[in-house]
Amino acid sequence: MSFHPTELPLQEIFTPGDAAEVADVVRNAGKARTAVYPLGGGTQMHYGMPPSRPGVGVSLEKMNRLVDYPVADLTVTVEAGMTFAALSEVLAKNRQRLPLDVPWPEKATLGGLTSVGGSGPRRFGYGSLRDYLLGFTAVDGQGTVFSGGGRVVKNAAGYNLPRLMAGSLGTLGVLTQLTFWVRPVPERAGILACDVPDWATGEKLLADLLCSPVRPVAIDLLLGPARQQAPLLGPKAAGSAACLYVGFEGAAAEVPWMLETLRAEWSAAGVTAISSVADDSVARFWHWQTEFQAQALIRVLPSKLVGLLESVKNIVPACSLIAHAGHGEVRLAAPVEAASCRFPTMFRAQLRPLVASLGGALTVLSCSADAGWSREDVWGPRGDAFAVMQALKDRFDPENILNPARFVFEE
Amino acid sequence: MTIESRNNVETNRPGSAENGWPAFARVGPGNPAAGISYELFLRCVHCGLCTSSCPTFTELGDENDGPRGRIQLMRMVADGRAELTERMRDHLELCLDCRACVTACPSGVEYGRLIEPFRLAVKQADTRLEERYDWFREIVLLRLFPYADRLRLVLLPVRIMQRLGLFDVAECLGLFKLIPGRLGRMVPLLPPPVRGGPRLPKFLPAVGRKRARVAFFTGCVADAMFRQTHWATVRVLQQNGCDVFVPPEQCCCGAIHYHAGDGRGARKMADQNLVAFELDRYDAIIVNHGGCGAMMKEYGLHWQDGLQPHRAKFAEKVKDVHEFLDELGFVPPGGRIEATVTYHDSCHLAHAQGVADAPRRMIAKIPGLEIRDLPESGICCGSAGTYNLFEAEMADRLADRKLQNILSTGAEIVLAANAGCLLQILAEVRKQKASVRVMHTMDLLDLSYRNVSL
Amino acid sequence: MTFPPLIQELRRALGGENVISAPSELAVYDCDAFTARRRRPEAVVFPRSGRDVAETVRIALRHGVSIVPRGAGTSLAGGCLPGECSLLMMLSRMNRILEINLRDRTAVVEPGVLNLQLTTALGREKAGCHFAPDPSSQGASTIGGNVATNAGGPHTLKYGVTVNHVLGVEAVLGDGRIVQFGPVEDPAAFDLSGLMIGSEGTLGIVTKVWVRLTPDPQDHRAFRAIFDSLEDASNTVTQIIAAGIVPAALELMDQGILGAVEAAFAFGFPADAGAVLVIEIDGLTVGLDPQEEQIVALCKKNHAREVLQASTERERELLWKCRKSAVGATGRLSPSYILEDGVVPRTQLPRILGRIAEIGRKHQIRIVNVAHAGDGNVHPILLYDERDPEEFQRAMAAGREVLDECLACGGSITAEHGVGVQKLEFMPRQFTPADLAALRHVKTAFDPAGVLNPGKLIPS
After folding, report:
1. Which CATH number is C217-330 given?
2. Top-level CATH class of A188-290?
3. What is the mean pLDDT of chain C?
4. How far apart are CA B230 and CA B226, in angstroms?
5. Chain A residues with CB-CB distance to C289 below 8 A
6. Do C286 and A254 touch (CB under 8 A)?
7. Nearest residue on chain A to C412, judged by CA atoms?
8. Which residue has the higher pLDDT, C270 or A373?
9. pLDDT of residue B12
10. Which residues of C touch B408 (CB under 8 A)?
11. C399 and B1: CB-CB below 8 Å?
């Protein structure tokens, strides 16, 4: 894992102090059609296509201030360069938080997180960053400062531009300021875990969870080596298909009730070797999953997930899989020796057709420049959205200088 | 909210002539809205919350066939902003007058007081009625239906055919399709024969402690086709401590005349009833069919003449049987009935009279009975008085919709408290060969009181 | 003016029964629930499929007319006001629930499906889940319309608005192409489905919606807290939110609206109450007692006269009916009204309600209030008589001042009704020219020819 921005072909790095200064940098770069690479904490440098076009970096490290935090409104406005850890610390003093799973929170900035739009195990219970972003300010490809959304929790004025910016990988604008909706910190957390002897049982356990009165925030299946590495005690019977972890958060009375209720349901269903953990270990476990180094991310509808896992295991037997079964998200890590030049071929020939047949989406999360990944390998074929995306890109960044080449757009 | 008039955008600046909205209401004679108080139109704030309650809007999805649109059509005519066109008239005619919109409307728009006088005025002004003699309207609707005895007499041959099984044969052979037009549509509506029993006596005493004196209204079609239900109803009333009087001089409520555009004929019937029922003798005038009850409760609204105060007083005494027993304190029946039932809201009971909870509360007291909610219970079955004879296509669509909803509950019995609904649902059940029994709520309650199994 | 060739082409494409062009039948489409402006469309079309919608867009493009999509026509902001030379597209005949998938907790519906129709269908299947957005118009409004306005409702407070409950859409864009965004989120794509939600039919005409279904809460309790003053009630709201309690709903009705509600439903609210809060908490049974205690304590602290729990499901339903039908019930107070939809940071609720009262006094306009108070979303209702032009002008002026005040509090001019035409003039007050340019970028990317609901949402 590298946090260093030098992998980018940077001629110079600017550290503007406010949106106007960011706009100056972008405008100047635009005149020369020089690429502009927004830099946050550098935790996601491996994400997307490796860029080749030389350009300037815009580091937001100086723009890390808390702008406005009306505690009783449960909203917070920050500069985009503030790290997730710094924000969490401020919020925690008021028993509030942004309920997102964030890798390397000490480094990761809110601007970077918003651009990448990642998510983790608790997305099932809380949604993703998109669901919390109320408003933003950014600088578009022509150096114009613009804002979207607002600072109130409900807002129907204008298009939902925050939704557009979240996950646009810095290709529409350099984010400078963000407003989030925050939530109270729950009192307790807990996980109930069990072994999944075979795929059919796995599907049954998952389907049964939907009928249970318990309300998990995370439903995770671990397969392969990851299962052994996970920092959680629990059953890891040899020969079983996977481990299932059902995570809860809530009020003091709720979490023990849910753990007990689910334990009773599982026992009645004949599940053996049930274990549970609480509070700190739970946080550690989710955090470990979030920072787990995966090469690919697959999304499918939850009903297709178990079938997907079974098929992937047949294609890459030794791989680790972390599956967020509640919302249909799978992180795939192949064994080191597989991550070679043969890897793109296997993706093309087997994985992508499999995912496509399930109506899912496959994204390569980490690709080295020399392995021969094409844009289509990494992001998949262009779907219905592409024509509109290109039209948006042409309007927000007509010179194509913002984070060029890394995302789906041609360089 | 901008009112600076942008180019080409009409602004509804009240009273401004430039946008075609004239100053308010110059309703002159000859305008179908002449007899309607303009305040009634103003109650509608155009929110649209009524549209989904309207059976015809639900089926067709056109605002012209929904309450909000119809009010606007009538108001345009009232304002003189539009001439009543044939198409507008069709949209207004397609209204079932089921009043579901009245239940849905939070603003309290009295839709019935708009559509009924408006349509009546349109019909009366329609010279074609005089030019082209409508034998069906004149003979069947106005001279046959409203008279129970005449109707029974006419039905006699059919009843004999039914008893002999010839009716079904004729139906199978499609012979009824040879009967033209609206008369042909009436045949399948005839319910299978049941023993209706003799004419009700003038007086039936209360059982047990006497709690009320009531008069019972028998009506026309209901008495001809559902006399057994009348018997059941009076027995239920007796069981609840009511002395029941059946004034013999009473006649049809007048609804058939009124809805067929014969306001004068309707008034004659109302006034005959005024004479027949000696108000001071009774605590209430009990009606067991929603359509008749709704009409009689509106006696005070329809005609503005010297008798109006008397009709209004009469109307106050009119009670639906469920409503009355619920208020009186219903004595629960004791006989077990092991069955699943669902309850259909008759429009003129639920929407026009606002009686929806009482029947449900009452049947819930029958031991052993399982009650299932009927989806879209408040959407009209398509009967709507004589609607199914005139607007055949829409009536058939709604009948099918109603039956599908009934079948979705899996109930063995569907209950309703209105003659039109019972006929319409029965006919649809027969048509689709569905296996579900159709009964009046009073029939079922009576069985339970008498401890007789189904 | 009508275009006979256009009408003929539409009839050929959609079938004569799905096109209306007689002037007398077009009149009822001249406005939605925002009645202050009216204009008749050239024709009304009733598509039955996505293909019909696409074909209509292509015909419109050829003839240079625009298309205004319309669901139930309950927009309070004029979102369905016909434009100059426009076709009105009624989506009411695309009203099928195509799929209910309980394993994935999704349903696929056509845009004309009523919000409540879906929830009722789920109830009938004993699905144990529901569609969470519950705008007050949910009995009449369509899911397509909910998508167009990013509709909220009382339970938004805990469960979020429409955008949080839609996984994807199929839509016809301004060039007549049928596209699908979602339902599986693809990291390689912008969130175009999310962007389309709340776009008021200006970016595309949604022909299919994949909605997320929310599990029914195990338990719920509804309360009404009666206050002597509006100020006490609004202070309570602010303190509940600040305490980190997230009720399922936290709604406010003031004395004026209570009068109308009581006339309509005879719930039994005391006639002299200054304000009532309708509070609902839901979730696991074991978690409700502590929430209830905290909420009741805060109500009492702010001088609530009493806090009463709805004792039966029927009473709870009636309580909600009162709240949800409150706006419609204003027909009992006045022949006409303007309904605003301002939103302020929640701590500003007491301030904005105080200012609204002052504004009413200043303009001599009676204003009554309902509010999704927990969200800071106020719905002042300005009453006037449309037969009095002068009073109408005063009402308009007061409405403007209310929205200006919302902006001054750091809020927004609309929370859930959308901009439509009603709030166009305020967009430049809330947004800079650069912000508005960004909105135009989006509009032209989806609809370069400007055929879809022009003149809405973005001021020209």
Report:
1. 3.30.70.3450
2. alpha beta
3. 95
4. 7
5. 253
6. yes
7. A155
8. C270
9. 41
10. 124
11. yes
CATH topology of domain C4-90: 3.30.43
C-beta of residue C39 within 8 angstroms of C-beta of residue C24? no
Q: Do A131 and C445 touch (CB under 8 A)?
A: no
Cite the residue boundaries of each domain of chain C with CATH code 3.30.43.10. Answer: 4-90
Q: Which chains touch C (3 or more CB pairs under 8 A)?
A: A, B
The DSSP symbol for A153 reads: S
Q: Are C323 and C251 in contact (CB under 8 A)?
A: yes
Biggest alpha carbon–alpha carbon distance for chain B = 78
Say if A and B touch: at least 3 Cβ pairs within 8 Å: no
DSSP B146: T
- Here the ipTM equals 0.95
Positions in chain B short of pLDDT 70: 1-29, 127-133, 135, 158-159, 161-181, 183, 193
* pLDDT for position B179: 67
Q: What share of chain A is helix, strand, coil (3-state, %, to 5)?
A: 35, 25, 40
- Going from N- to C-terminal start, the domains of chain A cover 1-185+382-411, 188-290, 293-379
Residues in contact with C100: Cβ distance below 8 Å, sequence separation at least 6, in sequence order: C107, C121, C122, C125, C127, C213
**CATH 3.30.70.3450 boundaries in chain C:** 217-330
- Are the Cβ atoms of A385 and C435 closer than 8 angstroms? no
| CATH match for A293-379 among 1.10.10.60, 2.40.70.10, 3.40.50.12240, 3.30.70.2740 | 3.30.70.2740
Give residue-wise pLDDT tens across range C375-414. Answer: 999 999 999 988 899 999 999 999 999 999 999 999 999 9
Instruction: For C67-76, write each residue's pLDDT tens digit.
Output: 999 999 999 9
Contacts of C332 in chain B (CB under 8 A): 43, 107-108
> Any CB–CB contact under 8 A between C32 and chain B?
yes
CATH code for residues A1-185+382-411: 3.30.465.10
> In this predicted model, what pLDDT tens digit does every residue of C292-351 receive, in sequence order?
999 999 999 999 999 999 999 989 999 999 999 898 888 889 888 899 999 999 999 999
Is the domain spanning B38-129 CATH 1.10.1060.10? The answer is yes
Q: Provide φ and ψ at B211, rounded to 5°.
A: -120, -20
CATH 3.30.70.2740 range(s) for chain C read: 334-417
Domain ranges, ordered by start, for chain B: 38-129, 135-189, 203-327, 332-450
How is domain B332-450 classified at the architecture level of CATH?
A: 3-Layer(aba) Sandwich (3.40)
By the 8 A CB rule, do C427 and C414 touch?
A: no
Q: What is the pLDDT of residue B149?
A: 77
d(CA B449, CA B236): 7
Chain C window 146-205: which residues touch B at a Cβ cutoff of 8 Å?
none
Query: Across the interface, do C93 and B61 touch by the CB < 8 Å criterion?
Result: yes
Q: Which residues of C touch A366 (CB under 8 A)?
A: none
Class of domain B203-327: alpha beta
Please report, for residues A125, B56, B100, C94, the alpha-carbon distance to residue B91 in angstroms, rounded to integers and kept in the order given: 50, 10, 17, 21
Residue ranges of C 284-313 with Cβ closer than 8 A to chain A = 284, 286-287, 289-291
Q: Which residue of C has its CA nearest to A165?
A: C190
- Does C66 reach chain B within 8 Å, measured CB to CB? no
